[in-house]
Q: What sequence folds into this?
């Protein structure tokens, strides 16, 4: 069973969420739908009870297995770059706590998510299920994507990659967007690849972030 803290709809947490959304707006997040989705998701439910009081600070927090729930600004920025429309099929690599998947669900996406750590995969599935979010989750190496359900309208990688994984590019739909942090282990540039038409891609680069490493066949070695 997950711990609901002092209740899912505790006004204290709702109020803090509102303040967080205002902070994200001031930091430059413009997409109103993304801000509304963040307003809807109870981030405190995705972290341990001891950390729930810090859930609405704009910072990453530990979730076990040396992994983190990403900083809210990072989630908001990646989601903004994905430009998700309701009904689109979205693949997330790095389920972690499940928080980003919940934000994507709030945007009306059909969410597919892959995690390599069994404990995190199981806990995220349970949390999302208990919150009523319907997602497709898989345990495995997300650097290879999830070919059974490809192509995707959007793909987001929530761990830092040494290079853009080829398999993820190959699983994009026409007009599909891939958002992936690429760089060394200390700093990554946010890269967005848009598939214009079959065999033609546009690549854009955004400012730096710091992610935990993407580990796998087309990522870093363990
Ligand atoms: N999106 C997550 C959330 O909302 O809580 C945050 C993810 S955390 C920053 C990055 C996650 O990527 C970790 O849970 C890590 O185990 C996972 N990861 C790293 N390499 C992976 C891979 N090759 N396939 C799937 N997951 C991977």
A:
């Amino acid at each position: 069973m997950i711990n609901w803290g002092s209740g899912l709809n505790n006004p204290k947490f709702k109020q803090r969420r509102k303040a967080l959304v205002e902070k994200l707006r001031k930091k430059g997040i413009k997409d109103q739908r993304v801000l509304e989705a963040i307003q809807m998701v109870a981030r405190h439910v995705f972290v341990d009870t001891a950390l729930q009081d810090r859930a609405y600070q704009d910072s990453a927090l530990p979730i076990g297995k040396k992994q983190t729930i990403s900083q809210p600004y990072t989630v908001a920025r990646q989601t903004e770059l994905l430009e998700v429309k309701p009904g689109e099929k979205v693949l997330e690599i790095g389920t972690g706590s499940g928080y980003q998947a919940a934000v994507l669900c709030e945007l009306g996406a059909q969410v597919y998510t892959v995690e390599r750590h069994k404990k995190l995969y199981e806990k995220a599935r349970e949390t999302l299920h208990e919150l009523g979010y319907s997602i497709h989750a898989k345990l495995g190496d997300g650097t290879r994507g999830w070919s059974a359900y490809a192509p995707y309208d959007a793909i987001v990688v929530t761990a830092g990659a040494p290079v853009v994984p080829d398999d993820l590019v190959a699983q994009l739909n026409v007009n599909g967007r891939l958002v992936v942090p690429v760089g060394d282990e200390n700093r990554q540039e946010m890269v967005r690849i848009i598939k214009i038409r079959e065999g033609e891609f546009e690549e854009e680069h955004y400012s730096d972030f710091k992610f935990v490493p993407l580990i796998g066949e087309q990522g870093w070695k363990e």
Notes: Residues 11-209 form a domain with the Rossmann fold fold (CATH 3.40.50.150).
